[in-house]
Amino acid sequence: MKPKCAIRFILNNQEVTAWESPGRLVLDYLRDSARLTGTKEGCKEGDCGACTVLLGSLKDGTVSYAPMTSCLIPMGELTGKHLVTIEGLNQDTLSPVQAAMVDCGGTQCGYCTPGFVVAMTGWLMDPKRPISSVGFRESISGNLCRCTGYRSIKEAGDQVVEKLAAQLNGDDRIQLLCVLGALPDYFETIPERLAKIESIAEPDSSSFKESPVVIGGGTDLYVQRGEEIPYQQVHLLNNIETVAPVVEENGHTIVDSRMSFQAFGDDPLIIKAIPDIQVYNELIASWPIRTRATIGGNICNASPIADMTCLLLAMNTELHLEGGDELRSIPLKDFFLGYKQLAKTEDEIIEKISFFTPGEKSLINWEKVSKRSVLDIATVNSAARFEAENGFIEQAYLVLGGVAPIPLYLKEASSFISKQALTNELAMEAIDIAQTEFEPISDVRGSADYKRLLARQLLLAHFIKCFPEIISEEVIYASL
């Protein structure tokens, strides 16, 4: 029997109280209970985008919307939110996005079309997103179409940009989009209406049994256990309103573990610390997945090829855990004991993470090889941080993923290259030492030999990108 509780939110233009299991997927609720079947079920893993919806959260009198795949959202997260499906975007006439899809032949069988329209509209609504052809291509990075070959969909995006770019020049895009017919007028009433229900308490868990399932973004958990979770007690961490901002204190950058990848990559302090973080983010996951995946969830999932964890290992990150009344800290590199085994008790949760704020001597690089650039996990990934000046490496942090049962901090290679003046020969020797620190296995993503070669090449890439004035690409590759 599913444990249920009252969940109050706004669904499109209707205020709803749903008596549901807080762990039930929003996709199942929309299609089976609300009978809003414009939201399609495709992969049910967050890859295809057919079930994309917009989730609006109220903060300081303003509602911010993010596209998310409803196959990864638990119902309990809807409390006090505005959930928008394709039906909630429909008006008496086609919106500019819908009209462009028709004009350019951007739909064929139509199954994926609602997800594309919702994702494109969500991009228009976010003042942080550029209204450009490049931006629109990023907006649909999480959507798959198996009919049109994408050209017509890209042309539809170009048409929207041409029509609306010059007019969306303010921060209050929602009001402008309502005037331009891109959104129904009811969107302007949502902040006031949400304010009346935003303080509703968390779902009552008194009737639940057993230990709760702790859920961050759920981007991997729901893929693995999606059929079980609605029958279990859940503890939802991904509460957008309560996530603390990134701060700098005493030379450290401190991040709330519940922060999403997208918020992490958009934060000015993170961009200052890791200048290429937005480039990395685009390779880590699609936009709808980045709005859900959390920093703490990526770490605790303990995948050997966790992209963000790989980068954070190179940042020499410290974890700050909370369990009951106890607080403690542990270096991230000591957190992984074995495959899916963590140095934490069952009741401990990562509260925040911190790392030394990079300075002028800091050089950071992250690399990933996968079969698909966005919608795929890495075959091998790697990250490096060097504290260096004039070619002298004071401290190095080298990391590999996908070559061991855990995200692997290369202790020996990092130690060897530190406190030395870098040369081609020294870099090659460090890479050779790194090769002794792991034993990859063959699996569906590649043979052990292939992974060794990838690891070697990615480590080379760090030296070439971070020290182009010292490391000669020609000399290095001549020595292979």
Model description:
The chain has helices at residues 26-33, 96-103, 113-125, 133-139, 151-164, 173-179, 190-195, 221-225, 261-266, 268-273, 277-284, 287-290, 295-300, 307-314, 411-417, 424-435, 448-466, 473-478; strands at residues 5-11, 14-20, 52-59, 62-69, 82-84, 213-215, 234-236, 247-249, 252-256, 318-323, 326-331, 336-338, 341-342, 349-356, 362-369, 380-389, 392-401, 408-409, 420-421. It has 480 residues and is of the alpha+beta class. The chain folds into 2 domains: 5-195, Ubiquitin-like (UB roll); 247-476, CO dehydrogenase flavoprotein, C-terminal domain (Enolase-like, domain 1, 2-Layer Sandwich). It has a 5-stranded mixed beta sheet with strand order 2-1-5-3-4. The protein has a 5-stranded antiparallel beta sheet with strand order 8-9-14-10-11. A hairpin with a 2-residue loop joins strand 12 (336-338) and strand 13. Helix 16 packs antiparallel against helix 17 (448-466). It is globular and about 70 Å long.
